[in-house]
Structure formats: structure tokens, C-alpha cells
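From the shared-data thread, chain only:
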Amino acid sequence: MENDIPEINELIKQFSKLPGLGPKSAKRIILKLINNKDSMVKPLAKSLATVYKNVVRCVDCGNLKIIDRVCICSTDSAYDKICVVENLADMWVIDSANIYKGHFHILGGTLNSNENYEQKNLLIDSLVRRIKKNNLKEVIIATSATVEGQTTAHYIEDTIKNGKIKITKLAQGLPVGGEIEQLDDGTLFSAFKNRVPVTDS
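Structure, as C-alpha cells:
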């Protein structure tokens, strides 16, 4: 007999929205949680509530920060380059691979080629401000090799192009249609090591 408890069905529905989880996987997780309410549900609920209350997205770099604390992007750094990625997952993958040392800038998504480049939630204006503020010498555009990722890359190139800053993008090893967060460390290393200058088309 199928479950007829609305609260459980709603929970399964919400878990099914998470990446990599379908209804079956969500049901298994929910059952595990229900069978371990004291040891798993209570601490999970507490952690989620804490994150919801205290963690926000930095309006300057797109990284996560505690709501009443200064973000890491505002601290002084000797780095002279910045890596532009689509989302936090991309940054985490690149950072954990130990193949890049420098600033990160998380856009918060990509531009849709059918929307005339209008997505105001993307942190492109703040990228321009950070480049000027930190006197950066190189911008590494590390968007995915999808249509949306490349559309975003071209828009960023046009926006920051001034002849004074070096603009590069990831090169060999990045498959067409590939997403950054799905790449292995070896592929990422090759893409960073062999990054190429962006030239006018």
C-alpha cells in the first residue's frame, strides 16, 4: 500500500528535487531518516535551520559567507589573477584539485542565449569592480563548454576587454558540452595548464 501521509509525500517531493536524486532514492533517504529520528533528523533539521538563518551569498564574489562576517574576497591577497566559474560546485572542484591559486568569482549561473543577455542575478558587474579594485592581471574564464557557458564567456570577454588585462579560457581536455563540476582532476589540470588567450573574433 502506498504511503498516504501528506507530510511524508511532501518530504519525498522536496528531496527528489536535489541533484542526482529521483523519487526512489528520495524514498530510501526518507525511510532512513524516519527510522533514525533522534540521531539523524534532529541534527539535520538543526543544521539546515542554522544554514538558512546564517549563511548568505556574497554580493561581491558569489561565494558563501556568514551573514554578519566579512567575506574572504574582501581580505588582502597577493594573487593577481581571478578564475570565473558558473557556480559553487565548479569552484569547489577546482579548489580541491589544487591546480589553481588565485581569486575566485562565482557568477551564480549562465546567460541564456535566447534572453538577450539579460539575467541581472549574475555577478558580472561586481566582477568588473573586483578586477579594477584588485588591479588584477589575468581573468581566467572557466565556464562550461555548453552553449550557455560559452555564451556567458563571450559576454564576459566583451564586458571586461580593455587591452590592459589578460583574458584566458580553459583549453585542452575540456570536452564540448562538458560541465566543470563533472571533470576529473587530470582533465582539469590539463585545461588550466593549457589555457589559451582570448582573441578578438
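The first strand starts at residue 55 and ends at 57.
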